[in-house]
Amino acid sequence: MLLKEISYVRPHSIDEAVALLNSYPEAGILAGGQSLINVLKMRIGAYSTLVDISALEELKQIRDSAEFISIGAATTYDDIIHSPVVMVSRPILAETAFRIADQQVRNRGTIGGNCCYNDPTCHFPPLLTAMGATMQVYGSDGMREMSAEEFFVGYYQTALASGQILAGIRIPKPKRPYGDAFVPLSVGGTDVLNAVTVTAHVELDEPGTLTAVRVVATGVAPQPLRMTSVEDFVHGQTGQFSDLAGAVATFDMSSLEPPSDVHASGLYRRRMVPVLARRALKMALEQVRRGYRE
Amino acid sequence: MSTVFTDNKTDTIRWTGKSIPRKEDDRLLKGQGRFADDIRRHNEAHVYLLRSPYGHARIRSIDVSVANEAPGVIYILTGEEVAVLQKPFMEIAPPPGGLMEDYCLAVGKVHFMGEPVVAILAETEELGRDAADLIEIDYEPLPAVVDGQAALQAGAPLVHEEAGTNVVWHGVYDWGDIEGSIAKADKVVKIDRLHFHRFTSTPIECNAAVVEYYPGSGEYTFWCNNTMPQFAAMFMGPALGIPTDRLHFVTQDIGGSFGNKITTYVYLTICAILAKKSGRPVKWTEYRTDHILGGSHGNERTFSDIVVPVMADGTILGISAAAIDDAGAFPRYEPLGSVIWSQVVPNVYRFRDVRIDFTQVVTNKCPVGPNRGYSRLQHMWMVERVVDIVAQELHLDPVAVRKQNYILPEQMPYETPNGCVYDSGDYPRCLDMALELIDYPKWRERQQTARGTGKIIGIGIGSTLDSGTNNFGQARIINPQLPFSGNGEVSNVKLDLYGEVVVTIGTTPQGQGHETTAAQVVSDILGLHPDQVRVLIGHDNARNVYTGFSGTYASQFAVTGLGAVQGAAEKLRREIVQLAAGVLQADESEIALRDGSAFVQGQEERAIPFIGLANIVFANNATMPPGLDVSLNCTYTYRPPFKVPDVEKKFGNLTLTYSTQIHASVVEVDEETGQTTILDYAAVDDSGRLIHPQIVEGQVHGAAGLGIGAALYEALEYDEEGQLLTSNFYGYKAVTAIDVPMMKTAAIESPSPFSPNGAKGMGEGGGAPLHAICSALQDVMRQKSGAIIKDSYNPSERVYWLLQNAEKSRQGVSVEESGHGL
Q1: What confidence score (pLDDT) does residue B2 get?
Q2: Residue A119: phi, psi to the nearest 5?
Q3: Is B129 in Cβ contact with A189 (below 8 Å)?
Q4: Whole-angstrom Cα distance, residue B209 to residue A198?
Q5: Which CATH number fits domain A178-289: 1.10.760.10, 3.30.1380.10, 3.40.50.1980, 3.30.390.50?
Q6: Could you report the per-residue pLDDT of B166-225, keeping only the tens digit for each?
Q7: How far is A13 from chain B (nearest CA, A)?
Q8: Is there a contact between A186 and A209 (Cβ–Cβ < 8 Å)?
Q9: Which residue, B55, B113, B105, B96, is CA-closest to B75?
Q10: From the candidates B733, B793, B801, which should be mutated to test the interface with A, based on the most A CB atoms within 10 A?
Q11: Which residues pair with B138 in a beta bridge?
């Protein structure tokens, strides 16, 4: 064991988990541990108690309904990859989960953990933002819902308050042809570390025009960034829309102040945003046109 | 798929040359291997090392008083006490490098981030780590020097004030007549700077040891994974003030080393001091982050003022350059790298006129140590860059320029400008095979069709040598006082009490399959199946045979290790034959061996099994046939035919064998992102006679994988304060299996005329992927910006900027008419 001495509690229900979180000072939530344990190993995390939610079955369900897929926050990447519900309704979730690290990590890491860690290289924050997901936050005053955009507030920061748990994520099931795209730029080998990622979502309405357009960049701003000018440009165009460069050119790249680190310079990151945005839009539009994800 | 082209092979050899199942795999694949961290001793205590968070800082004070009272703490060792208990480690270099003081813990100041500052011995590793949190160290940060060229500037911070300079070693290598070459050349190509980056090889098993001190004999036992134990002993004995025979090293299974585990003597010394102090066996196992921070890095080298005289047809006449090698904070194995590169001065080329002004410096970075391809790959990378840059700047075909300049098979054995004798090889044939494997014309076509698609295809060649079996006499070129020369390994082959054949060797295999290949050699000599031969691996200098060179490093086992095994097995065979002839009352010439029995040829009923022979010698020796003196216990030391090099002229044969690797790579670069994808890859090797083709191919794959990682993903990067920015796998993007493309391999066998079995060492490879990928990227740039690939490390971002703006990389690169002189 590499950690400092730490208390560990394993609640039997989400209510008990919330109660424990509120009764221990400096309590943190342990789910898959794929980021948290690394942080504790480096002794930079300051938790004195870990509340282990990984055994809570109610947080590990993938539920299907007419309007939504609901994914429990403690659902592992591997469970998402192998979920028939996900594969039928929003396969991008499985495709993206499959790109995370290796099988050992995917066996343990959870979608909720990925969201709550909210590292700019994390896969799900930009994807869920583009998908218009709803985050279900559970606290002592019950369940509260917020949009993904409200949830991801800054580098490693979420809207989750102390004593609250991310219980689940609700992802809409579009009723019309749609496209989802996840386009990362991995620095290092295959799917190693995504310095910049752009995700996109589009839908095609009855008259044949593009709607519900969302284009989200991450790795270049404190939170997953909606490229609203691009979205507005594409919105209302026909399904045959192809002026990707024109759409992306509406976004003021100079407004971005991406970080520079050992993985990539800020300038390179900024330069990659339009490239990836074009590719993500292209991919989403191709899907919409062939109704692939209808 | 591997294609092996075999020359002539005799029918009497049954096992050597075949890819039999590896003897070690059964236990390793079942998780039954026994590694250093698997060793447990009664009452063991655990070492935790508190390391420097600074690249360079004075230690004002260390307060361990609170930590001393922490639960489970047995002993806390600091540099202050080390300075009393330990003499500075010996240095290989003469002054100024020889003046640099190296202790097992930081004394007075820290020289690199990750340097051990305090060692805590505790009941458990966790308690040690908890106690470390209670230690207060007052550091005064000092300006750091993190670049080799900067280390030479006047006023640069000194890593070691006691030396008065950051220079470890400086020497000018000058062979032939470079001035004359420049005067008679048609063109002179000049390149201001090429930079070979810092990376390491990431063995799966980190460093580990269990160390026990016996007061009764004054002996220390090190169950460890050091891969060159007698080199470690040479440093540790004098440092601890004890005879080196009190240092008993034991190795077992080792999970990779690539040279990185040679310099662990520093850590073993900490453990030795703590074991004696505490009277307890002490156990130390490195964390991965510790390994990356403070293990052993590969040499970083900057080449400057490169001048290349060339004829119009692309014939390269020579190279003149300055090389600055960055050794990190302490020399340790260095400055041997300052001469080892000269094993392959012209790489695979015929040019004769070479001048290299070589300086090795210290910086505030982790000390370097041997790393797969050690010191030669840096130099050969520079030569391969020169070839590609010459081709591009003179508008010549890089394949044609290579063929124009390759040493030819009919010139073998070939003496290089500095007296190294390339034993055998056929470089043009290997290149043709590599090009055929990738279907070179097809890719040249696709390169054209890809134009305008946003993807640029590049084809590159890496031609290299893996020089194996060092002549340690080359160390005298660094320091004439050193009492080293030649090389050697020793093996014992015996019949055991019940007739089993048992082999021991002084080596420290770490994945190379010594048990298997040694058994193959012995089986052929004694007429056995390899399953009937037991090979006890590992170095054990109290119980087993060894020489001062024993270990596993520098691409030599096939020559020195198997040479020793062969010699010992042949000796044993003679004794078996003598004894059997006496017992069977036959002439020695009539005796044959098969399946563990000796018999009279043609009369197979006249036979005696090995157990019968062993019984006579070990348990029934009153029945020994008269006049015989056999022990059935045979030791042989293989000594390669070396002479001491001429130290003044820096001239002599520095290694015995020179195996060839010619790699061809096809890459695709995404013009918009700079991302490089390998589309096709071929590796053609000539390692002389192959003992076990599959093991050789495994080494080829491994070396290629590490090289590809180094070329595209892996770099040990420091900031200007000496902070390592890539100290874990989040930052240090070690290559994984999915990053390594499907590889096409082939081999030819040009037997070495100098080795006892025609084999050549080949475990390191010559870093060919670095050369081949840089070459392919140069081919990409040639089609676009004309940028020059000046760095060995080319992640996506660097490629992107080279495509965007060639100007910066082209600065300092010129082609001049000759006659200008240097």
Answers
A1: 46
A2: -70, 145
A3: no
A4: 47
A5: 3.30.390.50
A6: 999 999 999 999 999 999 999 999 999 999 999 999 999 999 999 999 999 999 999 999
A7: 32
A8: no
A9: B105
A10: B733
A11: B61
